[in-house]
Amino acid sequence: MSISLIPPGVWLILGALLLPAVPRRFHALPLIGLPLLTLWLVWTLPNGTSPVLQVFQYELVPVRSDALGRLFGIIFALMAVAGGLFSLRQKSTLELIAAAIYAGSAVCVALAGDLITLFVFWEMMAIASTTVLISSNEERAVRAGMRYFMVHIFGGSLLLAGIVAHIVNTGSLAIEGLNAGTIGGGLILAGVLLNAAAPPLSAWLPDAYPEASYSGMVTLSAFTTKAAVYVLIRAFPGTEILIFIGLFMIFYGIIYALLENDMRRILAYSIVNQVGFMVTGAGIGTEMALNGAASHAFTHIIYKALLLMSAGSVLYQTGKRKCTDLGGLFQSMPVTMICGVIGALSISSFPWTSGFVSKSMISQAAADEYLMMVWFLLMAASAGVFLHAGIKFPWFVFFQKDSGLRPPDPPWHMQVAMIFFASLCIALGIWPEPLYALLPNPVEYVPYTVPHVVNMLQLLLFSGLAFFLLLPMMKRSLTITLDGDWFYRKMGPWAAERVTEFMTATYRRFEAGWRLRIEGFLALLTRYAGPHSVAARTPESSYMVLFVVAVLGLFLLLPLFVW
Amino acid sequence: MISTQLPALQVVIPLLAGPTCLLLHHSRLSWGLATSASWVALFISLALLDQVLATGPISYELGGWAAPWGIEYRIDEINAFVLLIISGISAITISFARASIEHEVHNKQVYLVYTGWMLCLSGLLGIAITGDVFNVFVFLEISSLSSYLLISLSRDRRALTAAFRYLVMGTIGATFILIGIALLYMMTGTLNMSDLAARIPSVSDTRTVKIAFAFLTAGIGLKAAMFPMHFWLPNAYAYAPSAISALFAGTATKVAIYLLLRFFFTIFGVEFSFETMKLDRILLPLALAGIFVASTVAIFQTDIKRMLGYSSIAQIGYMVLGVSLVSVTGVTAAILHLFNHALMKTALFVALGCVFFRVGSVTRGDLAGIGYAMPWTMGAFVLGGLSLVGIPLTVGFISKWYLIVAALEQQMWWLAGLVLISSLLALVYVWRVIEIAYFGTPGDRSTEIKEAPATLLIPTWILITANIYFGVDTSLTVGVAERAAQALLGNVS
Fold this sequence. Notes:
The structure holds 2 protein chains of 2 kinds.
Chain A: H1 8-17, H2 28-43, E1 48-49, E2 53-55, E3 58-60, E4 64-65, H3 67-86, H4 93-111, H5 115-134, H6 139-170, H7 183-195, H8 204-208, H9 216-235, H10 241-259, H11 263-284, H12 287-318, H13 334-347, H14 354-368, H15 372-398, H16 412-430, H17 433-438, H18 450-476, H19 480-488, H20 493-529, H21 541-561
Antiparallel strand pairs in A: 1-4, 2-3
Chain B: H1 6-24, H2 27-55, E1 58-61, E2 72-75, H3 77-104, H4 110-129, H5 133-152, H6 158-188, H7 193-203, H8 207-223, H9 232-239, H10 242-267, H11 269-276, H12 279-300, H13 304-324, H14 328-359, H15 370-373, H16 375-389, H17 395-409, H18 413-439, H19 454-472, H20 475-490
Antiparallel strand pairs in B: 1-2
């Protein structure tokens, strides 16, 4: 079977544009049917490339199919299926269209065979995701959407500059084997890392995603960061700096998630944290590490979407998002609770869940490379993940004190979407072989050995113990320092506390300083470029003429003086 | 054979249609005539472009008088392309104009609009097509005088002062150009462009030629609204009737940029323009200043038409920037942006014309919430705005791409960076419109606002479709622009 010139994702994009013409009660058909079609198209793609498309002087390869591309294509399409199912009741048709275009472009990114095609769909993702975000049509979402869009267009600009530079210098359009040391490669890496929510601009993610609608955030969580991970695996495997960036992201995510009170912001920080694992994997760059990063992206999309679906269901049913307002929901929302717990166990890589079979590959790869420090930090981080996402989220939302709320479980299709992903989490955890078969490199790793399992269980048990020992203190006050304080006592009490304090304070100072500076800058701009400024006023004709004469003088005089 | 007379017909048909509109003295009839003349002009320019691409430059002797004595019309890749831009934009906007003009101009004066329109069109086409510099001046005056008329016909009384200011500045620009032409004639004894090109090198070290060059550059720069000679433009665009703003945005400044290219590259030659006169060292900073100042000012504008006017000044900066790089890719980028910017800016102005038709204003406050009342109009505006920002799959991206490639070819990293940053500024001012249109709280009158009629929407969406089509299939635009750039720069090498 030859590969068609049209990327599978395009059908999803084009189909989505027809959604307004479909009556509301038949929305299910395109919303689930189109992603299924895309999934099938990606699944059945043979290895190889589509014919070359000549666009100006460049030879584009719209579709290039190999194991890595298909792995991401499949999970993106799968996510679109579940996302479509979950958001059937979403009132904003705009969000549904944008979500489908977003997913479709992500599939196209995963299958793009050259840098230009990749860039085109990359930018479509940026526009579509902004639309998903702002279509909740609340003031906060629109503001956040603007910031989000600016950051991504900036990232897109870096990427574009990098791609052009790379092409001008090497003449090659291939995505593989970019060198982060060259200017082109470096800019591309910067642009991609920005989308992966890497420092110093990690904040765009937790700033924007939680403002989306209950279904919007489910969609948003899946694509942008994971498309970036895909490009890192494809183009920059073994780039050492990625290890440090990844580790930074892991701990950034954990610390801020522990400080957070909004359930969806907790999960947003945890995305940064999880993507950190993948970035580290890409940085280690061995076959096993890349397998680990790719499979972790796969499983992460599933369990993070599951967690956000359960958070979204809670939001949909209660309209509340703060941990302190929630609690005790297990009594009336059992399905949501069970699915949320399964997601939480998966993200903590509890044995027999999907997180275990993927994340452990990354830490094993670190160990195999004798990266002791990295291995140690990854293990410590696993405990941190369990604390913030594995226990904190379900505990405060579904158990904890009784908030008195008794909402029922969400509508059937949302439950089905959750159960679907929850079963996938368990199934992949118990039978990882189908997933391993999809991975780009052959897998020799065996997840279920006694040391692996025991190790993990010990780690989880002890961090779980820590959480519950610390609970009385958390109940008294939910402020930042208390829980951090108690937790870090185990591993160097004073230093950890100071670090937390220092980071918070620096961040505050940084924020305050910049806010002042930005406000000052805006005032300056308004003064010199605002509606009543010199630059914007229409001067008297005589002044206009003065400028013309000045330019004339410039043209006359400059050649005399400049050699 | 009629096909050999096409170059003359290109100008003559609108030139004759103008006075006829005046004589008809009837708004609908003169619109019908002007529209058909405009579309005929479009087909002629398509035929000419086709012919040029197939068989090379066309030389046409007007009235059968041979070149040094008579006027020669000379069409090569670049002006065939410019002819296409002008006649294409005119044909689409005039199809849009009927309802919009009837709404914005006093009934008794509507026929005057089409008279002026046709004269302006013939003037612009004449500038582009002719191979004689004095003829350039004549057509320049025809197009300028008629554009003062067109602006002042608006019901908005501020248009009168705007038109007057434009008249003062335009006249100064034309005078400069005339002085330059006269000095050249004095030194070379010819007005024909190719003769000038052949004779200037022998006298190029004289001060007279250098002064002629300075006057021509400043004069044409003024007509092109090159920063800092742009002050006439924002008000002229803001207060003119919507359809007229759309026409000017796509054509008037573009022709001036074409003239710059013609004078710099064909007549004076690369060596004189850029080595003797160090033109690039002036153009580059001016272009960058224009891009950043005008984009920043645009962000703060409350009148959206005025905002687009400032945006045009910034976009002209990109074209000048491309020229100042003095490379095939740079000039290709400039020529491409001529075409692409005409498409996006006209589309945006036309969409605003739809808004004005229903809302009666285009100030920010009055646009609150109209994204839902006028989904097709604002949808078009959003797409046009994305094109302005340079999002892939729109023409804006193609321009941006070539400009960055041109900058990086010369290892000018900082320049590529500045271009990209400036596109973020465009994003800000486009976003401000989107924000108010979709997320602003609608005023009391918003319930009465309906979607614009199909006669306005269809031309708008044709332009938007073109924005996307030429953003994907670039074989025509890039192909022609590249050949034109090679022809322009090939004169020396």
